[in-house]
Design brief:
single chain, four-stranded antiparallel β-sheet, 2 domains, 3 helices, alpha+beta, 27% helix
């Protein structure tokens, strides 16, 4: 019985490591191959006393879609279709439950429906303690997206669309 317990523990450990490795490889591929889009940030309290220095991000895109859509009429998970405007900022086009149809200029971002708004992922940005003043000027969130609708926050950008380091 004791030997059997160690085998189960070892199998669980291997599965956990395999899942973790797969997740890291997926994120690295998204960083390398994803298309950078900028999402306009909506005002929100930038600090948390319990968690240290971090910025709770709220996107204007989510606010616009949440205001336009009846909360009961959309699915809990789906895709936000966006198109870049002339300034390179992602603007909402529509919500849909599947990856298609898309025109050539449209891109997908997965969403989940929260209590009163849509979450498109990357709702928090952690930074080094004492650096809050630098990030208070953030106007855009830089997100890499892939054709599957996966997104990954890569940083915050100022009004001139330069990444804040």
């Amino acid at each position: 019985m004791r030997k059997f317990k160690w085998v189960i523990i070892l199998i669980n450990l291997v599965l956990l490591l395999a899942f973790f490795t797969y997740s890291v490889v997926q994120k690295e591929a998204l960083l390398t191959n994803g298309k950078l889009i900028l999402l306009e940030l909506a005002p929100v309290d930038p600090r948390s006393l319990m968690q240290g220095d971090y910025m709770n991000l709220r996107y204007e895109l989510s606010n616009e879609l949440s205001d336009e859509v009846d909360a009961d009429s959309i699915s809990k998970r789906g895709y936000c279709v966006v198109r870049l405007d002339s300034a390179g900022i992602a603007r909402p086009v529509r919500l849909q439950s599947t990856k298609t149809p898309l025109t050539g200029e449209e891109m997908l971002i997965r969403y989940t429906k929260g209590n009163r708004r849509l979450n498109i992922g990357a709702e928090s940005f952690f930074f080094e303690e004492g650096q809050s003043e630098k990030y208070e000027k953030a106007k855009y969130g830089g997100v890499k997206v892939d054709p599957e609708g996966n997104s990954l926050l890569i940083g915050l950008f100022d009004e001139q669309k330069k990444q804040i380091n």
